[in-house]
Amino acid sequence: MLSEAFLAEHRRLTRRFFLRAGVAGSALLVTSLGRGTAAEKPVRHEKQGAWADPYFTSAESFRDVSRGKPLPHTLSEEKKREVGLTRETWKLEVISDPEHPARLGKPMTAADNTALDFAGLLEIGQQHAVRFAKVMTCLNLGCPLGMGVWEGVPLREVVWRTQPRENLRRVFYYGYHNDDPAQMFRSSLPIGRVLEDPFDLPPVILCYKLNGEWLNSERGGPVRVVVPEAYGFKSIKWLTHVVLTNLAAANDTYAEQNNDVDSPLKTFAATLNVPAEVAAGQAIAVSGYAQVGISGLSKVQVCLTLDADAAPAGDPYFTKGAWKDAEILGPPPHWGSVPEGKVPAGTLGFDASGVPKGWPMRLTNAHWAAVLEGVPVGDYTLRCRSVDEKGIAQPLPRPFKKSGHAAIESVPIKVR
């Protein structure tokens, strides 16, 4: 279940919309947020962690899908200091791949005492630090883990300090894994993505702050990778090694588990509040959120169909359905778990006063709401979908499993 903090935020945003739509007297304004009788409570899928705090999620409220036995963030403080999982003891080696070597002028190694420490990373950050908003999402889950403002140093600034010369095609990286090779979890990127930021994307960063605070151990601190357009498996926690390689292909752990490791965030819509049962003639207030992926978001649409009607033959994505545009709600009145509720100055995508330069913002979430009126008695299914900036409707352009959630959600509604 979603936290009361998030439901309160969703209530504030959607209430204005439903007032304008003339359904202020509807019990749905209260009961659709989970306060009614059993018949009035919403039908919704598990979305714990979508926004445990208003818009930006506090570090403590992120949903956690970390790997490791034991989980590195559960280690004692003494053990964390011993293995370099504190800001005072953290070191990062940036080396050439011994099996597929890239030619480097100055690798950073622990053996010769040139590994990058936390003070050195912050020194680079004095000139090069960036921050941006990003939703963190697991490749094979249909709900976000949380969203925040991530801050750190572009990975390229550290790569350049190794003086790469030739035979550098990919970067792979991994974090602390209990000194157990079988537990290593690694990801990789083409060197071009590390050195450049295509399509106005933020850079790949070595992240040390979340929402203006030092990155805590549970969120991958003291330092993790954050890849703006990617799913969570690319943003390795407890970073210890960056390996520069002439390997031509991805060697991600997730690739070995039959996942598409090059698929960026998808755009999709999902419900949060849908009444299970309403009276005939009553306006039906529905609302939800959309993940704004790499292809942007132009619309959220809803479609209500009688269960007795035959499913459209040869149309698995309901492209011929009677889709109705919902309203994508504007930015929240406050941002939640950032200092003083204000977006930090200099955050990419926001102006000097902390207002988004465009809305909805790519790589984040947005709320939506709609009102359905004049619905006759019957058993119905509500579906929702996103439409991206190219006019392509969910689940396209990438409907496949193992490359990020995109399936069209369906929720039952009874009109009595």
TrEMBL record:
Q: Coiled-coil segments, which residues?
A: none
Membrane-crossing segments per the record: none
Concerning Gene3D superfamilies, the annotation shows: Oxidoreductase, molybdopterin-binding domain (3.90.420.10)
Q: Per its UniProt record, what InterPro entries does this chain match?
A: Mopterin_OxRdtase_euk (IPR008335), OxRdtase_Mopterin-bd_dom (IPR000572), OxRdtase_Mopterin-bd_sf (IPR036374)
Pfam name, any one: Oxidored_molyb
**One annotated GO biological process:** sulfur compound metabolic process
Locate the Oxidoreductase molybdopterin-binding domain: which residues? 146-246
Molecular function GO terms recorded: heme binding; molybdopterin cofactor binding; sulfite oxidase activity
The protein's name is: Oxidoreductase molybdopterin binding domain-containing protein
